[in-house]
Amino acid sequence: MTGDFQVRNDWLEWADHLHAVHSGSKEWSPLLETLRRLTGADGARLVIDDGQAKLTSLTVGSVDDGYRQSWSRRLEGWGISMVVVRTATAFAPEEDEQIGRMFEQLCQAAETDNEAVRVRKHAHELRLAVERMPIGALITNAALDVHFLTKDAEGKLSRSDGLALSRDGHGSRPMKLTVLDPRASGELQGVLQDMLQTDEHAEHMVSVARATGRPFGLLVARLGPTQQRDPSFLILVSDPDAPTQLAPDALRRLYRLTPAESRLCAALAIGHTLKTYAHEEGVSLETVRSQLKQAMIKTSTHKQAQLVALLVTGPAAYRS
Asked: Is the model more confident about 97 or about 27?
């Protein structure tokens, strides 16, 4: 009875370890040890080739001498192989079949883990890309529980001016977006409810008043399939009073400006006038006007306002 109980426990451990690998926690060593016990082997080795010159090789027990069985498979740019060794007796056909099924399960677990690694990598890359956006971004559900937010959005909401982040008592609960402007709060809730009822992927704008500065502008869009029961929403937060910091060197490379022209453009983008810029730089107003003229020629713009609009909406506005 004790032996049967141990075997059942081993199979439960095998299932738990498989689940752990499926979940991306890479519990390969315990998995291999459990396989060795279940097969009565003296040793087992698992080798995973991720297709990028990186090998994961794990061994439990001894695999140097004895009766051995090997399995291997190549899957879309990566591979997995397994060796099981027993010194006392050869493996019976039914044991070969059982270990073969376990190898199939290992392959499925490795494939899932490999996919999880790719998803995490792409998710990290996507976050880095979104963080470059010169605007705050959040992803929430209809109850405004926050699933994701950029550093820009977190900075805007941390001031609790018009918008804020809050928690409902328990630290384990997600943060919630709170709209402190009652009118805008009601409008946003109405927009979200309308989006829940419609199949259209429309975008809506909501203006949020605040104590200091001009109102925030919110762009709200539904994400995912229209049939999704608990959809997510993208909320972009625009602050019209936030200065647009442009790197002069980026402007110089992008528009082939001289260093002086690029410094002028960066100053104009954050609201400087020609007169104040000339005073700060210690140059004449005529010199600055000449630099402005050359910058407009190089950017194919005809007015100072057009130039500034191009600068603050162009690639240079994205953070490096």
From this structure: 97
